Amino acid sequence: MKRSRVWTKVLFVVALVYGLSRFDGTRTRAESLQGGPVGSAKVDVPDLQFEEIKFNFGEIVQDEKVHHTYRFTNKGTATLEIGDVRASCGCTAALASAKSVAPGGSGSIDVTFDSKFKKGPVTKTITVNSNDPDSPQTTLVLEGTIRTFVEFDPQFVNLGNGLNKGQGAESKFRIWRTDGQSFQIQKLQSDNRSVTATSAPFEDGGRKGYEITVKLATDAPAARYSGAITVGTDIEKAPDTSVRYFASVRSDITINPKYAVLGNVQPGQEVVKTLSIQNAPDPAGQQLQITKVSTEVPGLRVALKTVEEGFQYELQVTLGKDAPKGSVRGNIELETNLKDEPKVSIPVFGYVGNPDEESPPANPSTGAEEKNPSP
User: Fold this and answer.
1) Residue 97 lies in a domain
2) Is the predicted pLDDT of residue 63 greater than 90, yes or no?
3) Which pTM does this prediction carry?
4) Counting runs of H as helices and runs of E as strands, what totals does the chain give?
5) Residue 370: pLDDT above 50?
6) Range of 100's domain?
């Protein structure tokens, strides 16, 4: 009898503690979805649930593309809003099938991965932002292994940075099969007419394949060169593969600074920047004539001043008080009398208004974002 009373008291205390805990102000997800305890207001929330968050594509051959769909359902009681969907690298693209999904509805995130220039084990992530209060950010994973049937040495061809016009350049790389078997090159192609490639057999240290000579032509115009040499072989599972090349040839025209940075400008404020334009010494004695200066950037005016005829000029760049709010991006175009450089573009960027409204502008020379670019 005494033991029965003790158990009765224990059960009473447990029930009392549990009951008090129901009134401590906290709500579980299930309570939110179902309307909560008796007497509480119902709160509708979305609930993003993926069928899978990790996908392994197994083994593929380099240069193949992988397509995969991550499917999801809104198991909540409010509309699900899909925000930004961002991949961890430029080799992966992701797209949501819909931005708004009603309760009980379904959607998908379609992903494409390009294995070009990749090899070995790889792991890529895709971040999905939503208004799900419990999971505002979901990370999807795409992984697998990229097999190569051929190897290169070096992996990239650097023809030179800051080459003089007329200088030209040459570099080499080698290609061979990973299984040691012989093969034939059936195609050797460059994506730029100023860059050419030729091949010759080689055998060294147990490796047998081809040595590829890459040349930048002496008449290559001033520019940055970034492309690929495509090597086509008779290997069934790897008929085409690519090797990147890089080079840059200096311009005869020196612009300082290289681009017009207007910065963060308050509405109604006028900003003036001055750029120096000079002609590099030319043995042939060719003088620089700037025949036209123009821009299509709204609110931007440009004016050219001659400092030394044929050799040095000043370019005044003015962002007027009437410039519209928002991003200021575009180019100032120069037309010249130089045969190799009849047109020259000067990048312009800045922001009128609150810079937090937009991500930082990209550095025109690298394509990378920077918060406080400087000339």
Assistant:
1) yes
2) no
3) 0.51
4) 2, 25
5) no
6) 48-147
